[in-house]
Specification:
290 residues, alpha/beta, Rossmann fold, two-stranded antiparallel ribbon
Length: 290
């Protein structure tokens, strides 16, 4: 089953930038593009000028604008488009389940909150079972020229980051880019020291060499699978959010993981992904993993 690149549009400039990026990504990967617009008619108890037919026409116009835009730019791209009669969050989560990735727009930098996700973006990213890419326009363009870097955050053991690294290497291979694999680390608190953990660090020659060794172990199978993709291992002491944002200053794409788990207050995207989504200058892909 070929999963499409799916983009949600709502008529805003940000969603059109997301459609541009999604169409470009689908072209790079040789995948079809699906464009969806969620619209649910909710009649009011008071008389209104805009009747249902007018609203239907407006919803179809939103879809046609995005569909025509990407078809004009990428005439050879296979594109399907649909107005889905449901709420935005429900529609996007259902579409994400069927897609290779879901692409949504973001509203850019604000004076206080930074990179604003909009009313539904964070809910979708926190709950989606497939990768979600958050995009905003940059200097009038939704994507960078080929080349450059795809920056990916690696945490935990090798098996913890397989899905995240796979997405990053596939993205880099598609656009002829370099993978910069970032592992941030910090000195453990005194109560976290144990003979076992210190023995492993000592065997590696210290804490930083231990972190480098762990990163290389995670990268090894993906270097083998994608031998043509250049790789820059990047190990740096500091908070993960700050290190990643600094590394991704000129990146084409920033790829992060989100552990799939339920908390007492519902699903969460995690502090590192939250920081990246609010402050990164490039598109941010959040990849769910076990």
């Amino acid at each position: 089953m070929t999963r499409p690149v799916t983009v949600g549009v709502d008529g805003s400039p940000e969603s059109l930038a997301a459609a541009d990026w999604a169409a470009h990504e689908a072209t790079l990967r040789g995948l079809p593009l699906r464009v969806v617009h969620a619209w649910l008619w909710q009649p009011l108890d008071v008389p209104i000028v805009q009747e249902r037919e007018v609203q239907v026409h407006s919803a179809n116009a939103v879809l046609r604008e995005a569909e025509t835009r990407v078809a004009d730019q990428y005439p050879d791209l296979s594109v399907t488009a649909e107005v889905v009669p449901n709420t935005a969050v429900s529609t996007l989560l259902t579409e994400a389940d069927r897609a290779g990735m879901l692409v949504i727009g973001s509203r850019g930098h604000g004076a206080i909150a930074g990179f604003l996700l909009g009313s539904y973006g964070q809910q979708v990213i926190a709950s989606a079972t497939r990768p979600v890419v958050s995009v905003r326009a940059r200097n009038g363009q939704a994507h960078e020229p080929e080349g450059g870097e795809v920056v990916v955050g690696q945490q935990g053991e090798a098996e913890d980051s397989d899905a995240v690294l796979e997405f990053a290497f596939e993205a880099a291979a598609a656009r002829g880019a370099t993978v910069r694999a970032v592992r941030a680390w910090s000195l453990p608190p005194i109560f976290a020291y144990s003979p076992g953990s210190m023995r492993l660090a000592d065997e590696a020659g210290g804490l930083e060499p231990f972190e480098r060794k762990t990163l290389e172990q995670a990268l090894a199978p993906w270097r083998e699978k994608f031998p043509a993709v250049p790789v820059i291992p990047h190990v740096e002491i500091g908070s993960a959010g700050q290190v990643l944002l600094s590394a991704a200053t000129r990146a084409q794409l920033l790829v992060l993981g989100r552990r799939v788990r339920r908390s007492p207050v519902g699903t969460r995207i995690g502090s590192v992904a939250y920081a990246a989504l609010h402050h990164a200058h490039c598109p941010v892909a959040v990849v769910p993993h076990a």
